[in-house]
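Recap from last week: sequence in, structure out.
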Amino acid sequence: MSVFLNCRRLVVGVVVLWSAAGLSANEAFDPPALYLTWQRDPTSTMTVHWHTVEEAKPELFVRPRGSAEKWRAVSGKSQALPGSERTVHTAEISGLQPRTDYEFCFWPGEKAFYFRTAPRDLSQPLRFVTGGDVYHERGWMDTMNALAGKLDPAFVVIGGDLAYSCEKASKPENMERWDHYFESWKKHARTADGRLVPLVVTIGNHEVPGAYNQPPERAAVYYTLFSMPGPRGYNVLDFGNYLSLFLLDSGITHPVEGAQTDWLRSALAQRRQAPHLVPVYHIPAYPCVRSDQEGESAVITQLIRKHWCPLFDEFGVKVAFENHDHAFKRTRPIRGNKPDPNGVVYLGDGAWGVNLRKPDRAHARWYLQRAASIRHLYLVTLSPEARQILAFDEQGRVFDEVYQRVTAADSAAEPRAETPAGS
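Predicted C-alpha coordinates:
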Protein backbone atom coordinates (compact mmCIF):
# COMPACT_ATOMS: atom_id res chain seq x y z
CA MET A 1 0.00 0.00 0.00
CA SER A 2 2.79 2.45 0.88
CA VAL A 3 4.51 1.73 -2.45
CA PHE A 4 1.30 2.55 -4.32
CA LEU A 5 0.81 5.75 -2.40
CA ASN A 6 4.38 6.89 -2.94
CA CYS A 7 4.13 6.17 -6.66
CA ARG A 8 0.88 8.06 -6.82
CA ARG A 9 2.38 11.08 -5.09
CA LEU A 10 5.25 11.03 -7.59
CA VAL A 11 2.68 11.49 -10.35
CA VAL A 12 1.91 14.91 -8.92
CA GLY A 13 5.51 15.32 -7.88
CA VAL A 14 5.44 15.33 -4.10
CA VAL A 15 6.74 12.48 -2.01
CA VAL A 16 4.92 12.25 1.31
CA LEU A 17 5.20 9.50 3.90
CA TRP A 18 1.50 9.32 4.63
CA SER A 19 1.48 6.68 7.33
CA ALA A 20 4.36 8.27 9.22
CA ALA A 21 2.68 11.68 9.08
CA GLY A 22 -0.72 10.29 10.00
CA LEU A 23 -2.44 12.20 7.20
CA SER A 24 -5.70 11.30 5.52
CA ALA A 25 -6.16 11.54 1.76
CA ASN A 26 -7.92 14.89 2.18
CA GLU A 27 -4.88 16.33 3.98
CA ALA A 28 -2.08 14.79 1.93
CA PHE A 29 -0.59 17.84 0.22
CA ASP A 30 -0.85 21.37 1.53
CA PRO A 31 2.07 23.43 0.17
CA PRO A 32 3.96 25.81 2.48
CA ALA A 33 3.26 28.70 0.10
CA LEU A 34 0.11 29.01 -2.00
CA TYR A 35 -1.01 32.24 -3.63
CA LEU A 36 -2.97 33.43 -6.64
CA THR A 37 -2.42 36.18 -9.15
CA TRP A 38 -3.21 37.10 -12.75
CA GLN A 39 -1.11 37.21 -15.88
CA ARG A 40 -4.06 37.86 -18.18
CA ASP A 41 -7.81 38.52 -18.14
CA PRO A 42 -9.01 38.31 -14.49
CA THR A 43 -12.53 37.42 -15.65
CA SER A 44 -11.49 34.19 -17.40
CA THR A 45 -8.13 33.11 -15.93
CA MET A 46 -6.37 32.51 -12.64
CA THR A 47 -2.67 31.88 -12.03
CA VAL A 48 -1.78 29.62 -9.10
CA HIS A 49 1.67 29.68 -7.50
CA TRP A 50 2.79 27.10 -4.96
CA HIS A 51 6.13 26.12 -3.44
CA THR A 52 7.71 22.75 -2.69
CA VAL A 53 11.06 21.58 -1.38
CA GLU A 54 10.68 18.10 -2.90
CA GLU A 55 10.83 17.46 -6.63
CA ALA A 56 7.36 18.10 -8.00
CA LYS A 57 5.32 18.05 -11.17
CA PRO A 58 3.64 21.44 -11.82
CA GLU A 59 0.09 20.16 -12.16
CA LEU A 60 -3.22 20.81 -10.49
CA PHE A 61 -6.88 19.93 -11.04
CA VAL A 62 -9.80 22.34 -11.26
CA ARG A 63 -13.59 22.36 -11.60
CA PRO A 64 -16.52 24.67 -10.71
CA ARG A 65 -16.93 24.73 -6.97
CA GLY A 66 -19.48 22.30 -5.61
CA SER A 67 -20.06 20.60 -8.95
CA ALA A 68 -19.89 16.92 -9.81
CA GLU A 69 -17.91 17.65 -12.97
CA LYS A 70 -14.78 15.70 -13.72
CA TRP A 71 -11.62 17.41 -12.52
CA ARG A 72 -9.71 19.12 -15.34
CA ALA A 73 -5.92 18.76 -15.23
CA VAL A 74 -3.88 21.95 -15.72
CA SER A 75 -0.14 21.74 -16.29
CA GLY A 76 2.29 24.55 -15.57
CA LYS A 77 5.98 25.15 -15.13
CA SER A 78 8.56 24.95 -12.34
CA GLN A 79 11.46 27.24 -11.55
CA ALA A 80 14.09 27.01 -8.84
CA LEU A 81 13.89 29.90 -6.39
CA PRO A 82 17.32 31.58 -6.24
CA GLY A 83 18.97 31.39 -2.83
CA SER A 84 16.47 28.83 -1.55
CA GLU A 85 15.81 25.09 -1.47
CA ARG A 86 12.31 25.80 -2.73
CA THR A 87 10.88 25.45 -6.21
CA VAL A 88 8.14 27.81 -7.41
CA HIS A 89 5.41 26.12 -9.46
CA THR A 90 3.10 28.16 -11.67
CA ALA A 91 -0.07 27.02 -13.42
CA GLU A 92 -2.37 29.38 -15.30
CA ILE A 93 -5.98 28.19 -15.44
CA SER A 94 -7.86 29.52 -18.48
CA GLY A 95 -11.32 29.12 -19.99
CA LEU A 96 -13.09 30.22 -16.80
CA GLN A 97 -16.40 32.07 -16.46
CA PRO A 98 -16.65 35.57 -14.92
CA ARG A 99 -17.68 35.95 -11.29
CA THR A 100 -17.68 32.22 -10.73
CA ASP A 101 -16.30 30.11 -7.89
CA TYR A 102 -13.83 27.34 -8.73
CA GLU A 103 -12.09 24.76 -6.61
CA PHE A 104 -8.70 23.22 -7.27
CA CYS A 105 -6.53 20.55 -5.73
CA PHE A 106 -3.22 18.81 -6.37
CA TRP A 107 -4.83 15.40 -6.71
CA PRO A 108 -8.56 14.54 -6.92
CA GLY A 109 -9.82 13.55 -3.51
CA GLU A 110 -7.23 15.53 -1.60
CA LYS A 111 -7.57 18.92 0.03
CA ALA A 112 -9.28 21.48 -2.21
CA PHE A 113 -8.90 25.27 -2.26
CA TYR A 114 -11.20 27.76 -3.92
CA PHE A 115 -11.17 31.12 -5.68
CA ARG A 116 -13.50 33.46 -7.55
CA THR A 117 -12.93 35.06 -10.94
CA ALA A 118 -13.48 38.79 -11.45
CA PRO A 119 -16.84 40.05 -12.77
CA ARG A 120 -17.33 40.97 -16.42
CA ASP A 121 -18.82 44.37 -15.51
CA LEU A 122 -19.85 46.54 -12.57
CA SER A 123 -23.49 45.49 -12.43
CA GLN A 124 -22.52 44.77 -8.82
CA PRO A 125 -19.84 46.83 -7.03
CA LEU A 126 -16.32 45.40 -6.96
CA ARG A 127 -14.07 45.72 -3.92
CA PHE A 128 -10.32 45.47 -3.70
CA VAL A 129 -7.75 46.18 -0.97
CA THR A 130 -4.45 47.98 -1.45
CA GLY A 131 -1.48 49.05 0.66
CA GLY A 132 2.25 48.48 0.90
CA ASP A 133 5.32 48.00 3.10
CA VAL A 134 4.16 44.79 4.71
CA TYR A 135 6.58 42.95 6.97
CA HIS A 136 8.65 44.40 9.79
CA GLU A 137 6.97 42.53 12.65
CA ARG A 138 5.13 39.24 12.13
CA GLY A 139 2.27 40.16 14.43
CA TRP A 140 1.52 43.38 12.55
CA MET A 141 1.64 41.57 9.22
CA ASP A 142 -0.63 38.75 10.44
CA THR A 143 -3.16 41.26 11.77
CA MET A 144 -3.32 43.26 8.56
CA ASN A 145 -3.41 40.19 6.32
CA ALA A 146 -6.33 38.87 8.34
CA LEU A 147 -8.09 42.24 8.08
CA ALA A 148 -7.62 42.20 4.31
CA GLY A 149 -9.30 38.79 4.10
CA LYS A 150 -12.10 39.82 6.45
CA LEU A 151 -13.01 42.70 4.12
CA ASP A 152 -13.90 40.10 1.44
CA PRO A 153 -12.13 41.78 -1.51
CA ALA A 154 -11.98 40.49 -5.07
CA PHE A 155 -8.19 40.89 -4.87
CA VAL A 156 -5.37 42.66 -2.99
CA VAL A 157 -2.71 44.97 -4.51
CA ILE A 158 0.57 45.42 -2.63
CA GLY A 159 2.67 48.38 -3.75
CA GLY A 160 6.09 47.02 -2.92
CA ASP A 161 8.29 46.08 0.05
CA LEU A 162 6.49 42.87 0.87
CA ALA A 163 8.93 40.76 2.90
CA TYR A 164 11.85 43.21 3.40
CA SER A 165 14.16 40.44 2.24
CA CYS A 166 16.82 42.91 1.03
CA GLU A 167 17.93 45.19 3.83
CA LYS A 168 21.45 46.04 2.69
CA ALA A 169 23.18 45.75 -0.67
CA SER A 170 26.20 44.13 0.99
CA LYS A 171 24.17 41.25 2.47
CA PRO A 172 22.58 38.28 0.71
CA GLU A 173 18.81 38.30 0.37
CA ASN A 174 17.12 36.92 3.51
CA MET A 175 14.98 34.14 2.04
CA GLU A 176 13.54 33.17 5.42
CA ARG A 177 11.53 36.39 5.39
CA TRP A 178 9.84 35.31 2.15
CA ASP A 179 8.95 32.00 3.83
CA HIS A 180 7.35 33.91 6.70
CA TYR A 181 5.57 36.26 4.32
CA PHE A 182 3.90 33.49 2.34
CA GLU A 183 3.10 31.49 5.45
CA SER A 184 1.22 34.49 6.84
CA TRP A 185 -0.51 35.23 3.56
CA LYS A 186 -1.74 31.67 3.13
CA LYS A 187 -3.01 31.39 6.69
CA HIS A 188 -4.56 34.81 7.21
CA ALA A 189 -5.46 36.45 3.87
CA ARG A 190 -8.64 34.47 3.31
CA THR A 191 -12.28 35.43 3.38
CA ALA A 192 -14.51 34.22 6.22
CA ASP A 193 -15.57 31.17 4.20
CA GLY A 194 -12.01 30.27 3.18
CA ARG A 195 -11.78 31.76 -0.30
CA LEU A 196 -8.23 32.51 -1.45
CA VAL A 197 -7.76 36.15 -2.42
CA PRO A 198 -5.60 36.90 -5.50
CA LEU A 199 -2.46 38.93 -4.84
CA VAL A 200 -1.24 41.54 -7.34
CA VAL A 201 2.11 43.22 -6.64
CA THR A 202 4.50 45.97 -7.68
CA ILE A 203 8.18 46.08 -6.82
CA GLY A 204 9.69 48.05 -3.92
CA ASN A 205 13.26 48.98 -3.03
CA HIS A 206 13.50 46.14 -0.46
CA GLU A 207 12.84 43.55 -3.16
CA VAL A 208 16.28 44.05 -4.71
CA PRO A 209 19.83 44.37 -3.34
CA GLY A 210 20.95 47.94 -3.97
CA ALA A 211 17.43 49.35 -3.63
CA TYR A 212 17.26 51.71 -6.62
CA ASN A 213 18.28 51.80 -10.28
CA GLN A 214 19.14 48.10 -10.43
CA PRO A 215 18.85 45.79 -13.44
CA PRO A 216 15.93 43.31 -13.31
CA GLU A 217 18.42 40.46 -12.90
CA ARG A 218 19.24 41.78 -9.43
CA ALA A 219 15.62 41.14 -8.45
CA ALA A 220 15.69 37.50 -9.59
CA VAL A 221 13.90 36.29 -6.46
CA TYR A 222 11.02 38.74 -6.82
CA TYR A 223 10.53 38.03 -10.50
CA THR A 224 10.63 34.26 -9.87
CA LEU A 225 8.04 34.50 -7.10
CA PHE A 226 5.47 36.56 -9.00
CA SER A 227 4.15 36.12 -12.51
CA MET A 228 3.29 39.44 -14.12
CA PRO A 229 0.67 40.50 -16.67
CA GLY A 230 3.50 41.15 -19.14
CA PRO A 231 7.23 40.57 -19.62
CA ARG A 232 8.25 43.90 -18.09
CA GLY A 233 8.41 44.93 -14.47
CA TYR A 234 5.68 47.46 -15.30
CA ASN A 235 2.37 46.40 -16.74
CA VAL A 236 -1.37 46.93 -16.83
CA LEU A 237 -4.10 44.53 -15.79
CA ASP A 238 -7.50 45.14 -17.42
CA PHE A 239 -10.71 44.07 -15.70
CA GLY A 240 -13.33 44.07 -18.46
CA ASN A 241 -13.73 47.63 -19.71
CA TYR A 242 -14.28 49.12 -16.24
CA LEU A 243 -10.89 48.99 -14.44
CA SER A 244 -7.31 49.26 -15.61
CA LEU A 245 -4.74 48.67 -12.89
CA PHE A 246 -1.34 50.18 -13.75
CA LEU A 247 1.44 48.36 -11.89
CA LEU A 248 4.48 50.60 -12.18
CA ASP A 249 8.18 50.32 -11.33
CA SER A 250 9.21 53.52 -9.59
CA GLY A 251 12.89 53.44 -10.47
CA ILE A 252 13.67 50.12 -8.77
CA THR A 253 14.55 47.88 -11.74
CA HIS A 254 13.34 50.12 -14.58
CA PRO A 255 13.86 53.88 -14.96
CA VAL A 256 10.82 56.11 -14.52
CA GLU A 257 11.70 58.08 -17.63
CA GLY A 258 12.22 56.75 -21.15
CA ALA A 259 10.71 53.40 -22.14
CA GLN A 260 8.41 53.09 -19.12
CA THR A 261 6.98 56.59 -19.54
CA ASP A 262 6.51 56.01 -23.28
CA TRP A 263 4.67 52.78 -22.55
CA LEU A 264 2.55 54.45 -19.86
CA ARG A 265 1.51 57.24 -22.23
CA SER A 266 0.38 54.70 -24.84
CA ALA A 267 -1.35 52.42 -22.34
CA LEU A 268 -3.28 55.29 -20.75
CA ALA A 269 -4.29 56.69 -24.13
CA GLN A 270 -5.74 53.33 -25.14
CA ARG A 271 -7.83 53.19 -21.96
CA ARG A 272 -8.82 56.79 -21.43
CA GLN A 273 -12.54 55.94 -21.69
CA ALA A 274 -12.42 53.42 -18.84
CA PRO A 275 -14.19 54.76 -15.73
CA HIS A 276 -11.47 53.58 -13.35
CA LEU A 277 -7.77 54.09 -14.14
CA VAL A 278 -5.70 53.24 -11.05
CA PRO A 279 -1.88 53.46 -10.87
CA VAL A 280 -0.06 51.68 -8.02
CA TYR A 281 3.68 52.07 -7.36
CA HIS A 282 6.19 52.29 -4.55
CA ILE A 283 8.14 55.58 -4.35
CA PRO A 284 5.68 58.48 -3.87
CA ALA A 285 5.42 61.54 -6.07
CA TYR A 286 4.13 63.39 -3.01
CA PRO A 287 5.79 61.92 0.10
CA CYS A 288 4.52 62.70 3.57
CA VAL A 289 7.66 61.79 5.56
CA ARG A 290 10.78 61.78 3.42
CA SER A 291 12.20 64.81 1.69
CA ASP A 292 11.04 65.50 -1.84
CA GLN A 293 14.30 67.38 -2.50
CA GLU A 294 17.16 65.36 -1.00
CA GLY A 295 18.17 61.71 -1.12
CA GLU A 296 17.88 58.83 -3.59
CA SER A 297 14.13 58.47 -3.29
CA ALA A 298 13.70 62.24 -3.76
CA VAL A 299 15.34 61.96 -7.19
CA ILE A 300 12.72 59.37 -8.14
CA THR A 301 9.98 61.53 -6.64
CA GLN A 302 10.94 64.39 -8.92
CA LEU A 303 11.11 62.09 -11.95
CA ILE A 304 7.60 60.80 -11.26
CA ARG A 305 6.28 64.36 -10.94
CA LYS A 306 7.96 65.28 -14.22
CA HIS A 307 7.10 62.22 -16.30
CA TRP A 308 4.10 60.37 -14.84
CA CYS A 309 1.96 62.96 -13.12
CA PRO A 310 1.34 65.00 -16.32
CA LEU A 311 0.13 61.76 -17.95
CA PHE A 312 -2.21 61.08 -15.03
CA ASP A 313 -3.59 64.61 -15.53
CA GLU A 314 -3.92 64.28 -19.29
CA PHE A 315 -5.71 60.94 -19.38
CA GLY A 316 -8.15 61.31 -16.51
CA VAL A 317 -6.57 59.45 -13.59
CA LYS A 318 -8.25 60.58 -10.37
CA VAL A 319 -6.55 58.49 -7.69
CA ALA A 320 -3.04 57.02 -7.42
CA PHE A 321 -1.72 54.74 -4.66
CA GLU A 322 1.82 55.36 -3.38
CA ASN A 323 3.89 53.74 -0.63
CA HIS A 324 7.41 53.75 0.89
CA ASP A 325 7.07 56.36 3.67
CA HIS A 326 5.52 54.19 6.44
CA ALA A 327 2.71 56.59 7.31
CA PHE A 328 -0.80 57.54 6.22
CA LYS A 329 -1.36 60.40 3.81
CA ARG A 330 -4.01 61.92 1.61
CA THR A 331 -3.13 64.79 -0.68
CA ARG A 332 -5.31 67.55 -1.96
CA PRO A 333 -6.48 66.95 -5.53
CA ILE A 334 -3.46 67.94 -7.66
CA ARG A 335 -3.20 68.88 -11.30
CA GLY A 336 -0.16 70.48 -12.91
CA ASN A 337 1.67 70.20 -9.57
CA LYS A 338 -0.75 72.53 -7.82
CA PRO A 339 -4.07 72.18 -6.04
CA ASP A 340 -7.00 71.70 -8.42
CA PRO A 341 -10.46 70.33 -7.53
CA ASN A 342 -10.40 68.22 -10.71
CA GLY A 343 -6.94 66.80 -10.02
CA VAL A 344 -5.51 63.50 -8.79
CA VAL A 345 -5.69 62.46 -5.15
CA TYR A 346 -2.49 60.66 -4.11
CA LEU A 347 -3.06 58.16 -1.29
CA GLY A 348 -0.43 56.32 0.74
CA ASP A 349 2.12 55.93 2.10
CA GLY A 350 2.87 52.25 2.74
CA ALA A 351 2.17 51.31 6.37
CA TRP A 352 0.72 47.79 6.27
CA GLY A 353 2.91 46.07 8.86
CA VAL A 354 5.99 48.20 9.43
CA ASN A 355 7.45 50.55 12.02
CA LEU A 356 5.69 53.88 11.62
CA ARG A 357 7.29 57.21 10.83
CA LYS A 358 5.99 60.63 11.72
CA PRO A 359 4.87 62.83 8.85
CA ASP A 360 6.97 65.92 8.34
CA ARG A 361 5.42 68.81 10.28
CA ALA A 362 8.55 70.93 10.36
CA HIS A 363 7.94 72.14 6.80
CA ALA A 364 4.53 72.92 5.44
CA ARG A 365 3.82 70.68 2.46
CA TRP A 366 1.28 72.43 0.31
CA TYR A 367 -0.04 69.21 -1.17
CA LEU A 368 -0.96 67.35 2.04
CA GLN A 369 -4.59 67.26 3.15
CA ARG A 370 -3.98 64.77 5.97
CA ALA A 371 -1.06 62.77 7.28
CA ALA A 372 -0.61 60.61 10.37
CA SER A 373 1.37 57.72 11.86
CA ILE A 374 -1.24 54.98 11.35
CA ARG A 375 -0.85 51.42 10.08
CA HIS A 376 -3.53 51.01 7.49
CA LEU A 377 -4.88 49.53 4.31
CA TYR A 378 -7.39 50.88 1.79
CA LEU A 379 -10.65 49.26 0.74
CA VAL A 380 -11.65 50.51 -2.72
CA THR A 381 -15.22 49.98 -3.92
CA LEU A 382 -15.95 50.59 -7.60
CA SER A 383 -19.28 51.15 -9.30
CA PRO A 384 -20.12 52.65 -12.71
CA GLU A 385 -20.87 56.00 -11.07
CA ALA A 386 -18.27 56.33 -8.35
CA ARG A 387 -15.32 55.00 -6.37
CA GLN A 388 -15.30 54.96 -2.59
CA ILE A 389 -12.00 54.55 -0.76
CA LEU A 390 -12.01 53.74 2.96
CA ALA A 391 -8.86 53.73 5.09
CA PHE A 392 -8.87 51.06 7.82
CA ASP A 393 -6.49 51.07 10.77
CA GLU A 394 -5.08 47.89 12.33
CA GLN A 395 -8.06 47.67 14.70
CA GLY A 396 -10.34 47.46 11.66
CA ARG A 397 -11.78 50.95 12.14
CA VAL A 398 -12.47 53.33 9.26
CA PHE A 399 -10.60 56.58 9.88
CA ASP A 400 -10.64 58.27 6.48
CA GLU A 401 -12.74 58.28 3.32
CA VAL A 402 -12.51 59.61 -0.22
CA TYR A 403 -15.50 59.55 -2.54
CA GLN A 404 -15.12 60.33 -6.23
CA ARG A 405 -17.93 60.57 -8.74
CA VAL A 406 -17.16 59.16 -12.17
CA THR A 407 -18.61 61.95 -14.31
CA ALA A 408 -17.09 64.76 -16.34
CA ALA A 409 -19.17 67.29 -14.44
CA ASP A 410 -18.28 66.10 -10.98
CA SER A 411 -14.96 64.25 -10.82
CA ALA A 412 -13.39 66.00 -7.82
CA ALA A 413 -12.53 64.03 -4.73
CA GLU A 414 -14.72 64.68 -1.70
CA PRO A 415 -12.98 63.71 1.57
CA ARG A 416 -15.46 62.88 4.31
CA ALA A 417 -14.00 61.98 7.65
CA GLU A 418 -13.25 63.20 11.11
CA THR A 419 -9.61 63.44 12.09
CA PRO A 420 -8.78 60.61 14.53
CA ALA A 421 -6.98 61.20 17.77
CA GLY A 422 -3.24 61.42 17.38
CA SER A 423 -3.18 62.47 13.75
